[in-house]
Amino acid sequence: MLVFLAYTSNLLKPRTPTPLRPLPAATLLCNFTSKKLMSQSTSIPKKQERVRDHGYDNYMEVEKKTRKVLKFQSLILSQPNGTLPIPRFDFLARRLGLGFKQNEAGAYLLKFPHVFEIYEHPVQRILYCRLTRKALSQIEQEKEALNAQIPDAVTRLRKLLMMSNTGRLRLEHIRIARKEFGLPDDFEYSVILRYPQFFRLFDAKDTRNKYIEIVERDPNLAICAIEKAREREYREKGCDAEDIRFSFIVNFPPGFKIGKYYRIAVWKWQRVPYWSPYEDVSGYDLRSIEAQKRMEKRAVATIHELLSLTAEKKISLERIAHFRMAMNLPNKLKEFLLQHQGIFYVSTRGNYGKLHTVFLREAYRRGSLIEPNDLYLARRRLAELVLLSPRKAKVDRELVSFRNREADEMEHARRDYVENYFGVEGKVEQDGEVKENLDLDLVSDIESHYSDDDDDDFDETMGEKEGDCVTE
């Protein structure tokens, strides 16, 4: 009874309102970030998990090796005779900060025997290094390809300047990215000053920086690569013109999870109209939501066109950032590119995660360029020399030594032949016509790859000569 009375008295007591407790900071941060995950201008999520594509990562692993090999090549070619003593080479490699300890640089050259050749100096009796014939041939091939496509490089540079807001870019930014755009090292003289009808070079008064400015905009060049791809797809596949009017070619990496709502968001984003990268947007009001949508998609088109103008359809993220202010690109470029992984791929391989390389996905298939050019093929040839096994180089050296031994044996056979069939007179006349005729015959036999039938004919003729000698 007492327990019942105590329970009813507790029920009849007036309840005081419980004070509101503040939510934890982690919960508020989670709710805030969940709202910010969606872009304010489009419905595609801003934060996306990066999915690796091993084809592009393997490409960058090979390029990491070729990048270091190119530094060694330039170091050797900077010498007057194109040769360098190994102790001197080791000292210069450590002084330039290539990441080698003492006596490691010379040992590193042994990994690439198809590019570097180490030999002993005949007089000084110390080891020297030089480039192989294959490496020198590759360098000449790249130079020829670079000079042959200078007219295309002029067009690419004109389109690049037309994409900027003011029609001008810093000379230093172009110089840093000259290799990606297929420009020679002396492009300031061989391209800019050589074509004054297209380019103007001047110094800024405030910053004292050199700028390249386009003389006149050509409307025939204001056609993006994606527009040509849309037209080609429309003609080949016969798609609806309204569906591909503002769309991009999207190829998601393998393993990328595409949900129902994400697919719908991409479908809506593909139909958002935008301004061309070559169009001047200074006269538009960019404060509305519709203008933000168009400017965001215009940034995608600008980076797409920037990659299309490169020789290998790839460029580092840091070099794209040089053109950010001139081309109205977003501040956080990496997050922006990860938002569109079906169009671009960002690889962190090649420099221990410090370098970010952006690939144009539609231009590559299984880690190789779909439409290769001569400059790309010349640079890939160096990668092939780097990846060749050292065992093959050992076999090549053995073949060379075998040919030398074979030539020595043929020389001894020639001397025996002269002594046996021509006697003392033949020895005396070796400096005359007899030696010249024999040398011509033997050299022709050594250089020609005769068959077994030729050996039989040779034995028959030798037997006839012996028979004639016996009858006499």
From TrEMBL:
The UniProt record lists the keyword Coiled coil = yes
**Annotated segments matching region Disordered:** 446-472
Q: Which residues form the PORR domain?
A: 51-389
Query: What name appears for this protein in its UniProt entry?
Result: PORR domain-containing protein
Q: Where is the composition biased (Acidic residues)?
A: 452-461
Specify residue ranges for compositional bias: Basic and acidic residues: 462-472
Query: Which sequence ranges are marked TM in the entry?
Result: none
Coiled-coil stretches: 129-156
Instruction: Please indicate if the UniProt record lists Coiled coil as a keyword.
Output: yes
A GO cellular component annotation here is:
mitochondrion
UniProt organism field:
Corchorus capsularis
Alphabetized GO MF terms: RNA binding
Any GO BP: lateral root morphogenesis
What's in the keyword line of the UniProt record?
Answer: Coiled coil
Taxonomically, the superkingdom here is Eukaryota
